[in-house]
Design brief:
- The complex is a heterodimer of chains A (172) and B (330).
- Chain A is mainly α.
- Chain A is 85% helix and 0% strand.
- Chain A contains 6 helices and no strands.
- In chain A, helix 1 crosses helix 3, helix 3 (66-81) crosses helix 4 (87-98) and helix 5 (106-116) packs antiparallel against helix 6 (124-171).
- Chain A starts with a helix and ends with a helix.
- Chain B has 12 helices and 14 strands.
- In chain B, the strands form 2 sheets. Chain B has a 7-stranded antiparallel beta sheet. Chain B has a 7-stranded mixed beta sheet with strand order 10-9-11-12-8-13-14, sandwiched between helices.
- In chain B, strand 1 (38-44) and strand 2 (50-53) form a beta hairpin.
- The longest helix of chain B is centred in the N-terminal third of the chain and has 14 residues, at 2-15.
- The two termini of chain B are 40 Å apart.
- Classes of the chains: A mainly alpha (172), B alpha/beta (330).
- At the A-B interface, helix 2, helix 4 and helix 6 of A face helix 4 of B.
């Protein structure tokens, strides 16, 4: 009886592990999407609102939500209190501090670094050009992440359950 | 003294947030007396940070103000770029109009001049990139700044004369005009009554307005129109606020003349300023010269700055007679 209970537990544990990996893949896709929403909101703030960056970042953070939204909100708050650092420096510091909390792949962080470089330091045309370019890169990255989440998610789930069942059978 | 200390604290509180971390240490060595006489801070790429006090020009070194250029803190391109970010709240894109004018007005009415590489589109300046130099000019309301010329500003019936204040750049015209506006508005001596003043403050420098709200004392009966071409804001003020006195800074463009004449026709007194060092120089200027020759201004008051104080050079009446000389001879 105990052996049977143990086997059921092994099946569920392995299945849950597979599910966790699948959720991680989906979280990355959602975080990339949130970042893209933030970029679009920032584009609107710069192009039409002509709002100062602290205000624009705050709006973008509300629009985006998620970990990236929090980062944008923190950067906006730090800019408002004037620490002697500019937006690019503040963004890099916040990013370094929160890098492990974001469900992103290492190659995605390059895009986050890129976002901070030159933030608010040139005219509207240049800022919009940079944001549009970043948006395109993010879209491509998000599509890839979505594809990977769809394919690999199923594989990981099946693998989890399958491994659990095999282990349970071997044990029994 | 306590008032001076709180004034300097307020000023340093307005300026320090714009300073990058490398400059905060040296700036913290400025004494209250330094702050009190501080007029300008200049940041130029690969040059030491220059500071102008009432007493003259100095450099900003690691331990504060110094006369030794070698001890001055060198501003690197990266430092200047970060300074621009802080002054613009990392929002250079929102300041394109200001960049075209060559300056940004900061909270407190302080003015940041910028130079760099102009970007021309269709023959006109679109924006400025690769900024290579900044000039932070501090604005402060100096009560009594106009006292040295007030006797010439008042006519026999105690009303203000149509006046043009003239001095070279950095001569203190704006500070003097601000003091006159406040005196007129608040009925301070020698004015026996208060006047409704329309202040056409194109660069928000007179009132130090931020988001349209004056930060410096321009008087209780003053209506300020800022951020708009002075010719347009003068017309708007005449139409909408019926001022008794119209005050504006740095006239000289052809379109200003129409607005000034409109004011004259409606019986409004005008007090304005212009760059210049002498009457002959002003008469040679195409627009201003004509106005002066027509006798538009009842008083042309020329002054300059010596040792941190404004000193009268000459005062002319509408017929360009030097009344200061006549008064001295009498």
């Amino acid at each position: 009886m105990l052996k049977l209970l143990g086997a059921v537990l092994v099946v569920f544990a392995c299945g849950s592990l597979g599910r966790l990996v699948e959720m991680g893949l989906n979280a990355r896709k959602q975080e990339l999407r949130a970042f893209r929403y933030a970029i679009s909101a920032l584009e609107t703030e710069i192009a039409y609102g002509l709002n100062p960056l602290p205000q624009a970042l705050l709006r973008a953070s509300e629009e985006a939500g998620g970990g990236v939204g929090k980062l944008l909100g923190q950067t906006s708050a730090a800019l408002s209190v004037s620490t002697g650092e500019n937006a690019a420096q503040i963004w890099q510091h916040k990013l370094q501090k929160n890098i492990t909390k974001l469900p992103l792949a290492s190659e995605d962080f390059a895009l986050l670094h890129k976002f901070g470089m030159g933030l608010g330091e040139s005219d509207g045309e240049d800022q919009l050009r940079r944001l549009k370019l970043l948006n395109l890169e993010l879209k491509a990255r998000e599509d890839k992440a979505a594809e990977m989440a769809a394919q690999m998610g199923k594989i990981w789930q099946s693998l989890g359950w399958g491994t659990g069942i095999i282990l349970a059978l071997l044990w029994l | 003294m306590a008032q001076h200390t709180s004034g300097t604290e307020k000023l340093s509180g307005q300026i320090m947030p714009y300073m990058i971390t490398e400059l905060r240490g040296p700036m913290s060595h400025l004494t209250p007396l330094n702050w009190q006489s501080l007029e300008e801070i200049r940041f130029r790429v690969n040059q030491p940070c220059a500071v102008r006090l009432n007493e003259g020009s100095f450099w900003l070194g690691a331990n504060g103000i110094t006369r030794n250029k070698q001890a001055g803190l060198i501003i690197s391109p990266n430092m200047l770029s970060r300074l621009v970010s802080l002054f613009s709240q990392s929002s250079l894109y929102a300041l394109e109009d200001e960049l075209r004018q060559g300056y940004i007005t900061l909270a407190g009415g302080h003015r940041l001049g910028l130079v760099g590489q102009g970007v021309m589109v269709g023959g006109s300046l679109k924006t400025v990139k690769n900024i290579s130099g900044l000039n932070l000019r501090l604005a402060r309301a100096v009560e009594g700044a106009a006292d040295f010329l007030i006797p010439y500003l008042v006519l026999a019936d105690a009303s203000p004369a149509q006046t043009l204040l003239i001095s070279p750049p950095g001569g203190g015209k704006t500070t003097v005009l601000r003091d006159i506006v406040r005196k007129l508005s608040n009925a301070e001596p020698p004015f026996l009554k208060g006047y409704d003043v329309g202040l056409a403050d194109e660069r928000s420098e007179i009132s130090g307005a931020v988001n349209g709200l004056p930060q410096l004392d321009v008087g209780g009966r003053t209506d300020t129109f800022c951020g708009c071409k002075k010719s347009e804001s003068m017309m708007l003020l005449i139409r909408s606020m019926s001022p008794q006195v119209l005050a504006t800074d740095e006239i000289g463009r052809a379109e200003d003349v129409y607005a000034l004449q409109e004011a004259l026709n409606t019986g409004i007194k005008v007090i304005a300023t212009a760059h210049g060092a002498g009457l002959a120089e002003l008469l040679a200027r195409p627009v201003l010269g004509e106005l002066i020759e027509k006798g538009f201004f009842q008083r042309l008051i020329i002054f300059k700055r010596i040792g941190g104080k404004s000193v009268l050079t000459a005062v002319y009446d509408e017929k360009c007679r030097n009344i200061m000389e006549a008064k001295a001879n009498a």
